[in-house]
Amino acid sequence: MDSYYFLHTRSLCNIDYCTYKAGLTVLNSLTLEMQEEEKRLKNEAVYKNPLYVQLFDDYAETAAIIQFIEQCASIDTDIVNDAMFQTKYPNKSAGFWGVSFVGISGIASNRMVVDSASLKECRKCFLDNCIKHGNDKDLPVILLNRFPAFSFTKEAQDDLLWWKHNAKGLLGTVIDLLDDIPFHPFTGGLGKTEVLKNRTPSTSSKRITHEDRLTYSYGTITTIQRCKEHYK
């Protein structure tokens, strides 16, 4: 499923040229981390920034930056905050790329992309939102992107949909437990982790509620068996 990142016009303003050039160089490097379904957008207002014009005075060093800006698809709206982005692209607005978001309001901090770490966090936030609010039929693809080292059984996917439609607040708990598996697969961590006796080797569980468990087999590819009910 497609997701959109917008090059935030104002984040490129009110900074000095060296900061502008260095920040855009970092953003350009992030294109190597982009996935096929992730798209970059901009508004023509980026060209009115005097700092953009200055790039051409330093073209030998800045050609890659200029190309990066050009390769962002142009749209007719200069999107300034999360509300505008979500209105224009419901369920596809992942976040904003920029150099400095100081003094900019209306954007959640985990949707501000300035480097590799913040891109990963922004992508995670977007996919979590898709799990909670997206189309049910897209769930297998969303899970593949959000948890590439996990394989979810059909029962586990159905369990996630049950939480989504019946107890969405606990769906966030399940996602947190899934994130904890690589760090605490057998003991410790979240959910009172335990290895299950009389089960396939490396099969463990984490507690969701008093009655419900996240059950999985940990390995190179971790199989998520169930995300609901007690193990049997």
Overview of this structure, please?
The two termini are 35 Å apart. A hairpin with a 7-residue loop joins strand 7 and strand 8. The model has no long low-confidence stretch (mean pLDDT 95). The protein is built from eight helices and ten strands. With 232 residues, the chain is an alpha/beta fold. The strands form two sheets. It has a five-stranded parallel beta sheet with strand order 3-2-1-4-5, sandwiched between helices.
The fraction of residues assigned to DSSP E strands is 15-25%
Strand order of the largest sheet: 3-2-1-4-5
Give the total of beta strands: 10
| Domain count | 2
Work out the helix count. 8
Tell me, briefly, the overall form: elongated
Low-confidence residue ranges: none
Quaternary structure of the protein: single chain
What is the residue-mean pLDDT, rounded to a whole number? 95
Distance N to C terminus: 35 Å
**Biggest sheet architecture:** 5 strands, parallel
